[in-house]
Amino acid sequence: MKKDNNLSILLKGILLENPVFVLILGTCPTLATTTTVIGAFSMGLAAAVVLICSNAVISLLRKVIPDTARIPCYIIIIAGFVTLVQMFMQAFLPAIYDLLGVYLALITVNCIILGRAEMFAGKNSVGKSVLDGVGMGIGFTLALLSISTIREILGAGSFAGIEIPFISNYKIEFFVKAPGGLLVYGIMIAVVIKLTKGRAPYKKDFSCAGCPSKGLCNPELCRDRVKEEA
Q: Residue 103's closest CA among 147, 47, 183?
């Protein structure tokens, strides 16, 4: 099996394995925080910091953490960094802290961060895990920015809180509501699939083997559920 080089590890999270548009992870914060560009960028940056730091620590401790308790240990490590980010924002960026609200604390259970810990950081060196965190963090932030730009311009007639002449008179509030967010999200997923021309992983494989979160679930439970539905 060919090992990824450092550049490919860094770049894959931006497009080919973008956590939002390709792996379809972190949907809740994606839809909730993309009504404004400032909120989206803040969420992306906060999640990226937690992702990079937690990846580094989990990789450093991967041979110490017992396999039977790895998920609880990962959550504790992630929660520690989320708490630090919360405290920093509350002290120095209170407006952003209030803007993100509960979604800042929910970074702890963001499946992007836990998924990368399970799939990558727990199996690779610290250096590669940091690169993976940087790439996935950039990909997540860019995804949020692209969605929020469309939603804020069309739905609020502004960009980063700055009113855009003419457009502000014809804003469509539908785009800053949940249905509008889902519509923009779906269109962006279609655009990324078109751009990657089928090279994105997990695109056609709907089995457990192709699931990006397969390490976080119980395969036996999944098989039992499939049998019941059949």
A: 47
**How far apart are alpha carbons 222 and 228 in whole angstroms?**
10
Q: What is the pLDDT of residue 226?
A: 47
> Distance between CA 78 and CA 58 in Å, rounded?
9
Under 8 Å between Cβ of 134 and 9: no
Q: Count of alpha carbons within 13 Å of 48, Cβ hemisphere only? A: 20
Indicate the pairing of strand 158-159 with strand 162-163.
Answer: antiparallel
Residue 59: left if φ>0, alpha if ψ -120 to 50, beta else—which one?
Answer: alpha
State the first-to-last Cα distance of the chain, in angstroms, to the nearest integer: 35
**Contact assessment for residue 6 and residue 128, using Cβ atoms and an 8 Å cutoff:** yes
Residue 132 in tokens: 């993976």
Query: Which two tokens mark 32?
Result: 């909730």
For 133-189, the pLDDT digits (tens) are 999 999 999 999 999 999 999 999 999 989 998 888 888 999 999 999 999 999 999
Looking only at Cα atoms, what is the longest distance across the chain? 60
pTM for the model: 0.83
**Backbone torsions φ then ψ of 121, nearest 5 degrees:** -60, -35
Alpha-carbon distance of 171 to 5, in angstroms, equals: 46
Residue 162 DSSP SS3: strand
Residues 31, 97, 116, 137, CA torsion sign: positive
